[in-house]
Amino acid sequence: MSRDARWDALLELVGKHGRVEVEDAATTLDVSAATIRRDLDQLAEQQLLTRTRGGAVAHGVSYELALRYKTGRNAPEKQAIGRAVSELVAVGEVVGLTGGTTITEVARSLAVRPDLVGDTGPGGQPTLTVVTNALNIANELVIRPQIKIVVTGGVARPQSYELTGPLASGVLGEITLDVAVLGVSAIDTERGAYVHHEGEASINRLLAQQAQRVVVAADSSKIGKRAFARVCDLSQVDFLVTDTGITPDAKARFTEAGVTVIAV
Length: 264
Hints:
Layout: H1 3-17, E1 19-21, H2 22-29, H3 33-45, E2 49-52, E3 55-58, H4 75-86, E4 94-97, H5 101-112, E5 128-132, H6 135-141, E6 147-151, E7 155-157, E8 162-164, H7 166-172, E9 177-183, E10 186-188, E11 192-195, H8 198-209, E12 211-217, E13 229-232, E14 239-242, H9 248-256, E15 260-263
Parallel strand pairs: 4-5, 4-9, 5-6, 9-12, 12-14, 14-15
Antiparallel strand pairs: 1-3, 2-3, 7-8, 10-11, 11-13
């Protein structure tokens, strides 16, 4: 097993259980205890977990894996969600995209959608405008000549590559969007949509306020869960695009709340 694969597995264990023991991890991953200790030390140096005697625990109160370690989680579901969300966007629209692995798949689907592919639209204009506070999404889309990229500015969070703070808020306060696509950490019918970090919640909330339509893109593992900072309540959400893991009861409750649910 490669180092990257071990690190991903260790972070998954910490994220699931809140802690990991060296001996248990060595058995699970079929490597030596010395290798696990070295891996945990290196992950602790990156502040992705906190070392303890005999193992490690989640770093901080609200545990959140860095984006680069979350890309493989529920990947097929997220790719399907990305394709479905991209179909809700019309040619020529202005789209706001937050950060996160699911929204990254939305961006990738928009980049290769046949009716958006090409040098430019009529009159040499881009076929789509994307406004984002996510550095990784801007980096992927900036090479697409058919897509105009607007980056908010702000202070970057290494966990999600998202820009937050007053600089980002200042830009978003001056524009309007046709549709905002929000990535969330949790969503339910009682509390609405939430993320782990208050700075990201603030920017996501502003994106939703500036948009005519709001789409929440979230795999079913996020449904019914709780997170720290509220983005918006369901009255602001028009669509929830998720995977087929959503229960019939949950789907019915979202529908009753006025949200169109698309399960792919």
